[in-house]
Write a structure and sequence with these properties.
The chain is of the alpha/beta class. Helices cover 36% and strands 21% of the residues. It has a seven-stranded mixed β-sheet with strand order 1-3-4-2-5-6-7, sandwiched between helices. The longest helix is centred in the C-terminal third of the chain and has 18 residues. It is globular. The protein starts with 5 loop residues before the first strand and ends with a helix. The structure holds guanosine-5'-triphosphate and magnesium ion. Magnesium ion binds next to helix 1.
Length: 200
């Protein structure tokens, strides 16, 4: 899969404001600051496409980027941002869950998890919610450049144990680093496979 063109299309606070039509789309979700917007930029080879920040809470709306005039990448706000007011947190969570459970053109959701940590409550609850809703997802472990291979392997093993207790099958998983470009080809391959399956 080659990304030839990537164009910002819309920012919307609600599901109803998302683009009309039936182009397939692929969403990126995860805790605030886990690296969703950076990963989208890495995939597109375009540093400034999705807005990123070293502080959590940067992406606040549902952002659609049109790729190759054929499909969308969707950058979502993060969950679990502690410094937010309770009402904003509830509003964001409702927006994210409404989108993920009801967007009919959503083909695959990539859940980003910080590879530096063992399973944490917010991620676990979110993965369980996705499982209960039957939303298809793959996992991307981010920021792998920030820890040693040994620590990363230990964290991945803990996730594997948790997944095998809660899910019948292990989800597809990818290791990523926006510094080295690790994971780019694998994520694009998953997207390509999904699009091929849709056309079959
Ligand atoms: N070292 C390293 N830093 C990363 C990586 N991915 C993201 N970052 C940094 O992490 C910070 C957060 O990245 P964002 O892409 O804005 O994170 P986000 O998940 O979109 O955050 P919100 O929009 O606030 O939910 C930025 O300072 C990025 O430069 C990575 O793979 N390696
Ligand atoms: Mg963001």
């Amino acid at each position: 899969m080659m990304i030839r063109t990537a164009i910002f299309k819309t920012s919307s606070p609600t599901l109803s404001g998302c683009p009309a039509g039936n182009l397939p789309e692929f969403a990126f979700i995860g805790r605030s600051n886990v690296g969703k917007s950076s990963l989208i930029n890495m995939l597109c080879g375009h540093g400034g496409l999705a807005h990123t920040s070293s502080k959590p809470g940067k992406t606040q709306l549902i952002n659609h980027f049109l790729i190759n005039d054929e499909w969308y990448l969707v950058d979502l706000p993060g969950y679990g941002f502690a410094k937010q007011s309770k009402s904003t947190r509830v509003t964001w969570e409702r927006m994210i869950k409404d989108y993920l459970s009801r967007r009919s053109t959503l083909v695959m959701t990539f859940v980003l998890i910080d590879g530096r940590h063992t399973p944490i409550t917010g991620d676990i609850e979110f993965l369980q919610w996705l499982g209960n809703e039957g939303v298809p997802f793959a996992v991307i472990f981010t920021k792998t450049d920030k820890i040693s291979q040994r620590e990363l392997s230990a964290n991945l093993a803990e996730y594997k144990t948790w997944f095998s207790e809660y899910f019948e099958e292990l989800p597809m998983s990818v290791l990523s680093s926006t510094l080295s470009g690790l994971g780019k080809d694998q994520v694009l391959d998953i997207i390509n496979q999904c699009i091929t399956n849709l056309k079959a």
